[in-house]
Specification:
The protein has one helix and five strands. By secondary structure, it is an alpha+beta fold. The chain has a single domain, classed as Phenol hydroxylase (Ubiquitin-like (UB roll)). A five-stranded mixed sheet has the order 2-1-5-3-4, covered by helices on one side. A hairpin with a 2-residue loop joins strand 3 and strand 4. The longest helix has 13 residues. It starts with 23 loop residues before the first strand and ends in a 12-residue tail after the last strand. It comes from Halopseudomonas phragmitis.
């Protein structure tokens, strides 16, 4: 969010990666699955393999959604920070270009939310 200050303004954001003890924030948004009303925010190690992140972090987080049972991460259409993205499951988050506060967006053709309602 931009700020229009009426005087010289300086502030250091509190959510700099340096304040996360070597970890980073990763946001994940699952399109057409508004049972989760906003993107998830996960704390993860930058050297965590992407496959482990999907299996150990993201998978359990979305397990409550009925569509998660049919989710195949290898068939997901990914975007990283609004750009098409092809994940390398063996590569780390950092080596995949997933930085602090990056946004991963997944689109799952054929999985359109509960009863196709995008929820």
């Amino acid at each position: 969010m931009s700020v229009k200050a009426l005087y010289p303004y300086s502030a250091e954001p509190k959510d700099l990666q340096a304040n996360f003890n070597g970890m980073q924030l990763v946001y994940v948004y699952w399109r057409k699955h508004l049972m989760f009303c906003s993107p998830f925010a996960f704390l993860a190690a930058p050297d965590m393999p992407l496959g482990d992140f999907f299996e150990q972090v993201l998978g359990p987080a979305i397990a409550a959604h009925p569509d998660s049972a049919g989710l195949d991460f290898s068939r997901v259409e990914w975007q990283l920070d609004d750009q098409p993205f092809t994940p390398d499951l063996a590569a780390s988050l950092k080596d995949s270009g997933i930085g602090h506060k990056s946004m991963l967006t997944l689109t799952t053709p054929g999985l359109e939310g509960i009863g196709g309602s995008a929820t």
